[in-house]
Amino acid sequence: MEKCRVFFISNGNGIPVDITPSTSFHDVFSVINEQLMLTHSINEYVVLTPKVHEFDDSKIIDFVGDFKDMEFHVVEKSEHEIIQHFLDTTYPSVKFASFSYSAIAISLLSKLNYMHLLANAAANPDDLPIILSMIPYDSFENAHGTELLEAVLKWFSKDFFKRFTIPKCSHCGTDMSEDSPKAPTKSERLNGAYSVSRFLCNKCGAHNRFVRYHSVPTLLEKCVGESTEFVVAFAAIINSLGFPFRIVSLLSKDYFWLEAWCDDQNRYVHIDPYEGCIDLPFNKKFEQARWFVGVGPYECADITYKYVPDYHQVYNERSRTMNNEIFKSLIEFRGQMWGSMSQPDSVAVADRLKCDYEYHQKKIAK
Question: How confident is the model over 275-292, as pLDDT tens digits?
Fold first, then answer.
């Protein structure tokens, strides 16, 4: 193998790297650290190959073998030590290769951490004045609870925030196709950018860029995006109106939506701002999915029972795999960790989780 492409991933962000037989992990760190926004020194990170490995002079090609587009997860050493300690103490009798366990754990926690990052971006109190200045309160003054959510969603998805569509080439007007992503510039990162989607003209070879942001003020200024941008912006708006929220996703796909707590219904209500729909949790696109997770600033919960037609069948299928126990325990682990960050909020979160679960158990039993 003379040359191949691999991917390095950290906290939900990934970049392609072309390697040769002589490329080492140490060589690659200088390429990926800025693009993946790794803020610590090289000695404070490890890479999952899937075995835990330092960023040393070892040749990456020796770990790729016959795999195509292999993924390497980059994590902080301190984070990995916490995970490994948790796994070692929770599953001391499990007899299989520890590196497989670590790879599964890191992959799952990378997704959960990314969702938590999005939730915290949406709940940033410093952004509240900007958010409140954007909302047309006069249109909603007589609405409350679920009715208010419906009114805000209608305004947001129809009049305010727009879907990003792949542009035509600005030089020749030809259709463009998606190209490999790039890191944002320094000035773009200062405005909350985390990645840049690139598009290649199929005729003249020109490129176009779409900068992806997490920053709520920038999102509300640009008013355009994909499901991630829609979710962060809408979550920030309903949070400013007093609705507790959590971001929801499958573990296997990077598509996000929301749930908002409604006091008038005493439960979480499904909202998909990208599709402009509310309280329609069953989506045929995801009918084969087996894990749905909700993540808020102070919570992390398995909420699969809300998104599958037959939860008992799904649960039985999950119970036949070792991943079921790993995923279940790590989701609970993150929920306890984030819940402990704010005691008053953690009590309210526990009450909401209990009420929401009981509501759906009664619904399932009917």
Answer: 999 998 777 777 778 889
